[in-house]
Each structure stands twice: as C-alpha cells, then as structure tokens.
Amino acid sequence: MGEDASIRVHDNLEANIAWYKSLADQHLLLASSYTPNETVMQAPRIAFGSEWSLIAWLFVWFKPIVAYNINVILMSLVAFFGTYLFTKDTLKLSPKIAPFIALGFALLPFWFSGGLSSAGQPLLFWSFDRILKKHNSVIDWIIFLLFPFYSSLILSGLFMMVLMVGYLGVNFLKKERKIAYGTGVLSLIILTIGYILVDYRLFLDILKIGTPAGFTPHRVEFVQGNTFAESIKAAKNSFLGGQNHFPSFHTYLILPLVFFYLIYGFFKQKKLVTVVFCLVILGIIAIIDGFWNFTGFESLKDKLPILKAIQLDRFYSLYPNLWFGVFVLIIRELPIKIAIILASIQVMIVLFSNQLVGDYIKKTIHGRDYVSYREFYAEDLFSKVKTVLKEDENPNKRVGMVGLHPAVAQYNQIPTIDGYVVLYSLAYKHQIQAIIQPELNQNKFIKNYFEQWGSRCYLFDNEAVIAGDGILKKQKCCTESLDYDFDKLKQLKCGYILSAVEVRHPSEHLKLLSKVEDANWRVWIYKII
Q1: Burial class of residue 44 (count of CB atoms within 10 Å of its CB; 0-12, 13-18, 19+)
Q2: Which InterPro entries does the record cross-reference, listed alphabetically (predicted)?
Q3: Which of 171, 236, 257, 386 sits in a 20 to 30 Å window from 302, CA-based?
C-alpha cells in the first residue's frame, strides 16, 4: 500500500522516521555528537542514534517510505527464519509445527526503530546455543559480529546479554559438562565490543569525552512517581497484556494455555520446572516494569543518573521471545495436529491484532477513517506552507507548532523550535517552559507531562491538545488565545506559528498570513510580530 498504509504514529511517525530523514537531509549522519540538528529544535546529533545502524543508512540510500518498508521486511524475514531454527533446533519442536510458530512470531508488529532488537532474538539465541553446544559454524560467529549493527543496546542488547549470562550461570551451577563455557563467554565479549563500537557516542558521553562544558541533559528532571498500588497494577497489566513497543500478543491464547497446562501437569505429576522457571522470569520482568516508576525508587535514580539513561524496565524487550518460548514448550508435548491448530490460531490472533491489517479492515468493511503515512506527513499541503514562508520577508524561518506534531514540519524540512527528542539540554527545556508556562498553569495534565518528563518539548496549548494520531480537523475548530511569551519565542529565532486550529484572539503578537488545508489538516500560518 506504500504511503497509503496505516502506520503507527506513537514513537514512529511523530518521532523516529522524521529523525532519520532529518539526518539524511542535512548530511548529519557522520557529524560530531553535539552538532545541532537545525531541523529538529537544534537538538544535538547524539540524540538521533548511531551512524553504524543499518536503519540510519537505509534512509540515506532510499526514500523514507522505501527505507521503512525494507526495514519491516528484513525484520520479519529474520524473525521467521530465526524462530524456525530456534524452535526446531534449540527447543526441539517438530519441523512440521515450527513454521507455524515462526510465522506467528514474524507477523508481530515489531517496533520499526528496534531493528532486530526483538525480531532477531530467536536467531541470536539459536546461534548462542549452537556455540555453547559446540555445533557452531562460521555463520554463528558472523551473527554475533553483525547483530549490534542492526539492533539497539539500550532497547534490548543489554537485557539479552543478561539473559545469556544467566543461562551460562545456571548451566555452571548444574555442572553441565557439555557446555563450552569459554566460547560462550567469547561470543558475549564479541557482542559487547560490537555494541560499544556502534554506540561509541553514548559511551564517550558517559565518560564526558567531547561533552560540552556545562551541558546538562533534560533527562535529569525526569520524575515518575507511581504509588505502590499503581505499580502493582502496572506490573499486573505488563504480565497479562505485554508491552506496546515489544508486543507478544500472548493474552488470548498462550496465557490461558499456560494456566491449563500447569493444572494438568500438576495432577499428572509432569515435570514443569522449565515452564515454571520461564514464568518466574516473566513475572520478575513484569515486576521490574511495573515498579520502575515507583516513587520509592526516585531517590536511587537521582543518585545514579545512568538509571535514567538506561531504563532497566526494558527487560520487557524479552517478552515476545520468552512468551513464544513458553508456548513452544507446551505445544511440543501435544499431538501434532492439535499443536498446528493452536499455532495457527496464534497466527490469526497476531495477524488481526496488527494495526496495518486492522485499520485496512476498518476502512474497507466498516468505512472508518484511519491515518495513513501520506495523510500524516501531508507533503503536498506543507509544500504550500513552505511557499508562504518563503514569500514572507522574515529572517527567522523557524516555526513553532500548535495542535500538531512538530515531526510533520520536520519531515517536510521546515525547522522547528519544538519537537520530540530523547536527549537535549535542560537549559533549552527551561527556555520553552518559560514560553508556555501560562498555558501549562491552566492544565495540570500537560503541566506534569512537560515538567516531569519533557521529551515531547512541544508548544502546548491548554485547548488544542494533540490526539493520538495528531489530527484535530474533526475534533476542534479553534483555541481562544495562545498565552505565550512571544518575546522569548523571538529570542529562539521563531518567526511563525503553524497551528492546527484557528486562534480566535491572536493578540498583537500574531498576524495571520494564510490558511491551507487538505482532507485531514487545516493549518493556520501566523507570523510572530
């Protein structure tokens, strides 16, 4: 479907895709870590990932939508073949059933920016098992060499290595003699060195090598204080429902199957150690995920700032592989026909839980609208916006966005003063905060959202709150006023406000230049005077 496909907005269209395109457009991929990205709120280059990432180079070599689709196809192909090999060789599943499990795993909607962080885990664990059992070949070592270049250390690499070290430790305690501990450790050393090379910017920054004097990241102000009851609820939801960036879709079939298997196994006196052990690991991950934002841990995070940079709750990146692993451990004991039926049901659950398929069905059968890639970025519409900005005589061409994601302008090569960035200076956050403070004071939710997190450094308005898909045309017609400090806006060389809603009382600081629209967006172009 190309650009007409429905693609995830959250942490995707509104963020990563625009980031990669901005690096390619400005030839910033190889720039030094603190070179400002002029398109994305002048955030430092280090905020946008490594130049050693395959995904980043796909955006250099191809159009964004082509790069996106190549990445999705590669992730799914590796997931399929890796899961097939892992379940057949490592978990000893029948070759007749393994393709169905592999298909179910490969159809999971892997997070685009993760690369093989989730999709490649079965392949990596397959190679690790072969290395430990002395069945390895050159290809296994190549997998360990190349894996860091198409995955993320902070998303999953660190947690996969913890799991593999744990596996080594369990075998050592059991005094398993058939394990090649030396080569296992060597493979982990190779993986570690690979991640250090790929994420060298991160490690240099941790050591304060090349970091500008006085630079303080906005992340030091992260405050996420859930109560004990809220943390318990979050842990329960994590265990039962999974995590949205690393979906496992285990709720409707795998989880009930586990429940009945444990009851059946208990009365039949079956050996349940392996399944129970995996469930214990999944439970621990859920507890870490649920309690990571517990208010009682905030003082520890303040003492160890690295905990705010590397979120330990991301052990949830292991969910898909572990839940499917438990699924395999159970169905491999069932008759082949029943196992194939259950695996096929899981394939259908995964398929119809996928946003791409779900939104297509909504549109074709129910006639409901969905936001496509083309509609979200609205290149034709924003070419008109660029024409208006170009024709206006104003040296300050940077814009602020109201009621729509700054990524839309950034994708269209319009530089913004606001944006969604995982790392930028605390001083810049305070500059934006000073501009929008009157609006924040009118809405407790956006005030806490900005002040206690702030990675979405948006020009928030009390009335024009962005919806999940970022499109407000059918939701709200206007906002009464923008209570901003316009003098401070001009200090950031912001010359315009692009608003998804009309400002009824623009005050003496705003002059309406034009209004452009298409089937999804209305954009009012205001000049700051």
Answers
A1: buried
A2: DUF6044 (IPR046107)
A3: 236
CA dist., res. 486 & res. 528, Å (int) = 8
For residue 182, what are its two tokens?
């030396």
Residue 468 is predicted with a pLDDT of 56
- Residue partners of 13: CB distance under 8 A and separation at least 6: 7, 373, 376, 377, 405, 407, 470
Give, rounded to a whole angstrom, the gap between the first and last alpha carbons of the chain: 43
Q: What residues pair up with 401 in beta bridges, in sequence order?
A: 498
Show the DSSP H helices in 120-253 as ranges.
Answer: 121-132, 138-146, 158-173, 181-198, 200-206, 228-241
Cα separation, 107 vs 75, in Å, equals 10
Instruction: Using the predicted structure, report yes or no on whether residue 474 has a pLDDT greater than 80.
Output: no
Helices in 268-335 by DSSP H: which ranges? 273-291, 298-303, 306-309, 319-331
**Each residue of 251-266: pLDDT tens digit?**
999 999 999 999 999 8
Residue 479, classed as helix, strand or coil, is: strand
Percentage of the chain with pLDDT > 90? 77
Q: Are 285 and 250 in contact (CB under 8 A)?
A: no
Of 4, 3, 7, whose CA–CA distance to 358 is shortest?
7
Cβ-based burial of 427 (10 A; exposed 0-12, middle 13-18, buried ≥19): exposed
Task: Report the interhelical angle of 16-25 vs 54-61 (nearest 10°).
Answer: 60
3-state secondary structure (DSSP) of residue 528: strand
Sign, CA dihedral 364-367-369-375, equals positive
In 3D, which of 139, 161, 132, 131 has the Cα closest to residue 148?
Answer: 161
- Max alpha carbon distance in the chain (Å)? 82
Buried b (16+ CB within 10 A) or exposed e, 134-158: eebeeebbebbeebbbbbbbbbbbb
CA 120/CA 124 separation, integer angstroms: 6
User: Across all residues in the chain, what is the average pLDDT?
Assistant: 92
pLDDT classification of 307: cutoffs 50, 70, 90: confident
pLDDT in tens, 9-58: 889 999 999 999 999 999 999 999 999 999 999 999 999 999 999 999 99
Dihedrals phi, psi of 263, to nearest 5 degrees: -65, -45
- Is residue 370 within 8 Å of residue 359, measured between CB atoms? yes
Task: Quote the CA–CA distance of 97 and 80 in Å, as a whole number.
Answer: 13
d(CA 37, CA 485): 24
